[in-house]
Amino acid sequence: MNEIQILKYNGGEGGRSKYVDIGTFEGQKVVIQRLRPILRSTDQHVRLVKFLKNLLMSDQFDHPSLVKVLGYCFRHTKGEAGYEHTPYFGDVSVVYEYGGMGLDLNALNRTIAERLNHAAEIASLLSYLHYSPLGSLADFDIKPEHFKMLNGKIKLIDLDHMNNVEPTCSLTLSTSHKNFKPCPFNISCQELTEIEMRYTKCQTVKCDLGVCRGTNVKYNLQKMNIFFQVLLKPKFFPDALQYSLSRLLTQLNKTDIGVDGLEKEIRNITLAYTNLKT
């Protein structure tokens, strides 16, 4: 951490929750994140938990569309230049690869090949989250501001709102009542697995508790659809591809396609475009 040359203190997009410093390390531009102190200690504790969750998940996950953690330090800031008069709770700093300012979807003036490549990478990220070792993960804070354009790739930078919990439901009731609501996205209520049963309070011989399995991946597809609608807009493509693109975008609007089908469709459209050029 001491070898990082700080170019600008609090010069990044940290919002109200984080200080974001910009520096260089071994010729590479980096971002250093620290928690911004607040007066209420209870809120500070919650923010620290989320800050550390983002660190742990970013450090453990490995996908080219997720921002990389380059390092982190605990209990190191006191007495360092630039930090002497900074009230700081938690004393932990995390170093990430630098991604510039937030992503502006309207400024994505890309070639057809770049559009298809970005779409394929985002579809790959959705597949990675769905098939993760932690189970199907949903990011409940997906928005363009949490993505950066880094070395030609669109990367997700904020993982602290991810979880693998899917809504519970009733196996015997098709309408909502005081304890359960119908599954979203017209998903059917499914029985719990043996492992899931161990962590519930369902003690009856025939458990009525079920899970809306598949909600997380549908949620991610719905929220990430904004990227596909911009990147795969038919008017930017040859006439021969516009029908396939319109059909795919309609499926995405209705969340009527899974991650496997999405990746396959983008591969097919990319292949068709390649053949058109030859």
Automatic annotation (TrEMBL):
GO MF, one annotated term: ATP binding
Limits of the Protein kinase domain: 1-278
Stored PROSITE patterns: PROTEIN_KINASE_DOM
Gene Ontology cellular component list: extracellular region
GO biological process terms on file: skeletal system development
UniProt xrefs under PANTHER family: PROTEIN KINASE DOMAIN-CONTAINING PROTEIN
Name the record gives this protein: Protein kinase domain-containing protein
UniProt source species: Mytilus galloprovincialis (Mediterranean mussel)
